[in-house]
Amino acid sequence: MTTAEILKDFLGQNRGRRSFPEYLVKGLLRGFGLPVPDGIFISREDFTHAIPMPPLPLEYPLVAKISSQDISSKTDVHGVLTGLNNEGDLRNSVRDLLQIKQAEGVLVEEMAPQGVEVIVGGTIDRQFGPVIMFGLGGVFVELFRDVAFGLAPVTGQQAASLIRQVKGYRLLEGYRGSRPVDVNALASVIVTVSDLIATGLITEIDLNPVAVYPSGAMVLDAKMSVQAG
Questions:
Q1: What CATH number is attached to the domain comprising 179?
Q2: What is the 3-state secondary structure (H, E, C) of 11-35?
Q3: Which CATH number do you get for residue 103?
Q4: Predicted confidence pLDDT, tens digits, the chain (229 residues)
Q5: Which element (helix H / strand E) includes 192?
Q6: Are residues 156 and 199 in the same domain?
């Protein structure tokens, strides 16, 4: 199946949604071969009917994140709890997150190793059409606006060129003793996101952050939306 066909099927299965929770977007990305942490979505109903919680097939430490299409920033509502080391921590964290207003459920994932954090996004620009964006995470995007843009879709070679355009590229090459990151793995993430936004079936996709390692990468958070109406 083509990217457009897979995406049409996904949207059909989730008809009526305008924004998609992290666990659904990650499931879609996993189908395209992008690496995401192993995780399980626990709905409010699942948690209510499964006390005490059964052991999950995940390795500690874990992270628990609130899931809601009505909450744009999990951080603003204190909706991310990390460093969960046992079933007691997990049960208490899920319970606390479900008490947050508008919580639909909780995504529980294995904590990923620390890497260089970057942002990969796509949007439909009124003038240019499908656009792909890449930038380094943290203060680089928040303070310095250190991002690069390209017209989607992009090839692997074009994605690598996009990566080199940001001022903070030296961090990816290896800086002050750190090892260079896997630019090829990062380019693959960019190509996949560019293919998705280029279908015209979605209006925005945001992978923030993506952790990049000396070997491989991992999508740590993901959002996607379609136009209302």
A1: 3.30.470.20
A2: HHHCCCCCEECHHHHHHHHHHCCCC
A3: 3.30.1490.20
A4: 899 999 999 999 999 889 999 999 999 999 999 999 999 999 988 777 655 666 789 999 999 999 988 877 888 888 999 999 999 999 999 999 999 988 999 999 999 999 999 999 999 999 999 999 999 987 666 656 789 999 999 999 999 999 999 988 988 998 777 899 999 999 999 999 999 999 999 999 999 999 999 999 999 999 999 986 5
A5: helix 183-198
A6: yes
Q: Specify burial of residue 13 (Cβ count, 10 A radius: 0-12, 13-18, 19+).
A: exposed
The domain of 161 spans 3-33+114-225
Angle (CA) 223 224 229, round 5°: 140
pTM above 0.90, yes or no: yes
